[in-house]
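Reviewers of the previous submission asked for a worked example of the structure-prediction workflow described in the proposal, so we include one complete record here. The input consisted solely of the amino acid sequence. No template or homolog information was supplied to the procedure at any stage.
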Amino acid sequence: CDGASTNLSLIKASHGTSGVYPILKGERDPYAVEPCMMNPFNPPNLIFWVICPTHQLIV
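From that input alone, the workflow returned the following structure tokens.
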């Protein structure tokens, strides 16, 4: 199974970005993705993205 493109779309959508990432020449990536987001049910705590290396799925 290849969930890589689906996972990338999900991560982009959850961070308010979309489209193709531009190729940058030495500049800071404006689309840098943090591997966590605020827990909407328990705001002081974070939810971390963990990608399964075997299936490339977010768990």
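The chain has one domain: 4-48. We consider this example representative of the routine output the project will generate in years two and three.
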